[in-house]
Amino acid sequence: MAKMDDDRLKAICEAKLNNALGWVGGLLSKERQIAMQYYRGDPFGNEQDGRSKVVSRDVAEAIDSVMPGLIKVFASTDTIIVAQPRKPSDEPVAQQVTDYLNWVFQSQPNAFDMLQTWIKDGLLAKLGVVKSWWDDSRETSTEDYEGLTRFQYLTLISDENVEPLKLAARPAGPPSIDPTASPPLSLAESQDASVGLAVAMAGQGVGLMDDGYVYDCTVRRTNASGRIRIQAIPPEEFLTDRRAVSLEDATFCAHRTRRTVSDLIEMGYPRAVVSGLSGGNELDFNTEVLTRFEDDDEQPEQDADSLDDSMRHVWVAECYLKVDYDGDGIAVWRKVTLAGGNGYEVLDHEPCEGHPFSAWTPNKIPHKLYGESLADKTVDLQLIKSTVWRQVLDGMYFNNAPQLVVMEGQANMEDVLTRRPGGVIRARSQGAVTPLPVQDVSGPGMAMINYLDSVREARTGVRRFSAGLEADALNPYNGTATGAQLVDDASQDRVMLLARNFAEQGLKPLFNRLLELSIKYQDKPATVRLRGTWVDIDPSTWSTKMDMTVAVGLGTGNRDRQVGQLMTMLTQLDAPLVQLQGGLKGPLLTAGNVYSKLSKLTEAMGYRDGNSFYTDPSTVPMASPQPAQPQPNPAAAMAQAQMQLAQQQAAMELQQRRDAAQLDAAIAQEKAHRQGVIETARAQAELAADQRQAQIQAQLDQQRAAHQAQLDTMKAQHEIALEKMRVLADIEIAQVKATAGSVGKSGRMRSGKTSVPVESP
To answer: What is the DSSP secondary structure assignment for residue 131, as one 8-state letter?
Structure first.
């Protein structure tokens, strides 16, 4: 098979980049964006005007509560990782390797910030990633000197890393210049000078060196010595295989970032090639980056340096992949550097021994590279808790300023709409404006919030220290000192598991890579200060076949407990053994054993350099042998030791029982105090509820009486009106009857007076 050309290599890299896990717009990118928004406490987008908009900060509280403990575990000691040799011949250098690698890690620029960022990326964005490499870039600086003698100047420029740029000679002072003295140096002559010239002139005497002139010069100093660099990578800049189980098994990893044209030229790439690279693309509008900075600036970053071509930004992707470049059928690791905006160009490619990345995830999911972050465990709780919290506050708002029922046309609406303490509402009748009763939900709401806090504690291991639900309701063992200790240990175990994951997944691979880089690139001995002493270290003589083990105190409790345990060993165990042995020469206890305990004790107390407090016995010259002292009877000594140990054990048990009794009493007192507080609060709440109910009942009775009085008045008015109408009707009837009677009587009278006709005979 023919050797692969650059175009095919670029096509393979572009295909892997486009199909990598963490590409722009993927599900993983969206989840990290949501985690950042919840960490900051951004609004959810479902807020309503006039209602509560409070946002709980459960994600931030969980992460920020874990961070101090993890930082204290790894940043408060000089020895993070210990190198363990695989064969006896590596034993003498194992301690030196341990000291040097820990010094390399802690001597990084902004080492604490890098460690904090690495840990927090994992807790917030599922995966924290760092990149380690050997930096052989040259560091150039310009230095100015004034008033140098001829010898001082020649000695300065004799350094191979120093190049003279400017030179000016002037008389040294008032004394006249000896005409036989050497003329002042010119810049051209000084550029040809060497150490041999300076030494030769020094051998001729002080006269030639002190030629009556002083020199002012400007030189360029170039530092060509390389060093190991470690950098925390933003989550969106790291890409890997979609189905990667771990970084050890990944066949493709990439670091995609922005660099200036000036940076690329300083890295050694041709200016003609770099200047022709295109600039921004869709990566400039990465939603993760915009979300990270949107609380400060809602606009995407503009390339303000585009007018200066040297400061123009270019996207660069460092790809590390296994590929059959040589055409022999075997895929090997190769580093390919691509650059450009709309289209990538291959800047260089070379074989390598693997990728430079080390990563960790807080909660490992089997057979997956990306696990669960603390944000994943608390995002839903933050949404639910914020919703309940808002409802509780809305209920309190409505209780303090309830809605009003207004009879239309019976009250002044301007007064009703202007709500102010002590305000007046003008109404035409009593009861025209009444408050709408609202049920108080603050009690169940606060109980739900406390329950959600307990769920968060169970998920994350972060304990609450504020008063909330009774501990006995969730843990029946917390009523005793042993139960309280079990709860504390269970919480610490969750945090210690996070620390162990960070140590095993992140630190151990990183330190193994630091060892490989030191052996491969540190080509000359380095002088460093280890354990308070300057020593020369030559990593080229070391072996890469060493195991790294975590040296921090994980699984043995917190530092206070470690201090107590070490103090107990020194005072109650070691002291009797020293008396029993008659000194520190063994067989059970030696000066080296005591020194090891003292070193661990000072380290647990937070002091980094234990040698300033105690001296290693192995560094002290051996004293002249003393005459042998008669040894006590072994059987009697053993019996005495057993008796002393039994007495000490009995005293320790008695002290433990006393401490347990005191702790139980304190817990009982605290429990009684909290119960009293709860009962008082409950009584006050019930009293307030009764008073509120009585007030509402009184208002209802008053309104009912007013309504009844109004009904009675209206009824009386109706009855009076009816009676008046009845009287008027009777009058009218009487009048009608009277009129009818008079008409009938007049008719009869006329008929009586009428003459009756008489028939004629």
So the answer is: E
- pLDDT attached to residue 16: 92
User: What number of CA atoms fall less than 13 Å from residue 320's CA on the CB side?
Assistant: 17
d(CA 644, CA 650): 10
503 close to 70: Cβ distance less than 8 angstroms: no
Q: Is-contact 56 452, C-beta < 8 A?
A: no
Nearest to 73 by CA among 617, 492, 696, 680: 492
Rg (alpha carbons) of the chain, rounded to whole number: 46
d(CA 231, CA 253): 16
Given a contact cutoff of 8 angstroms between Cβ atoms, the answer to whether 252 and 319 are in contact is yes
CA gap 372, 123 in Å, rounded:
8
Using one digit for the tens of pLDDT, what is the confidence trace for 201-259?
444 444 445 667 889 999 988 876 688 999 999 999 999 998 899 999 899 999 999 88
Helix (H, G, I), strand (E, B) or coil at 608: coil
pLDDT in tens, 637-655: 667 767 777 787 788 888 8
Rounded Cα distance between 490 and 130, Å, is 30
Place of tokens 């002072």: 173
pLDDT at 464: 62
Strands of 391-539 (E only): list them: 404-406, 433-435, 526-530, 533-537
How is residue 281 written in tokens?
A: 């693309």
Q: Which two tokens stand for residue 483?
A: 């139960």
What whole-number distance in Å separates Cα of residue 497 and Cα of residue 495? 5
pTM check: above 0.90: no
- The type of residue at 445 is G
Tell how strand 546-550 and strand 533-537 pair up.
unpaired
Q: Residue 665 phi/psi, 5° resolution? A: -65, -40
Orientation of helix 195-203 relative to helix 150-157, angle to 10°: 150
Residues in the chain: 761
Residue stretches of the chain with pLDDT short of 50: 194-208, 466-487, 553-557, 624-625, 628, 749-761
- CA distances to 53, 78, 127, 517 from 230, in Å: 42, 17, 17, 12
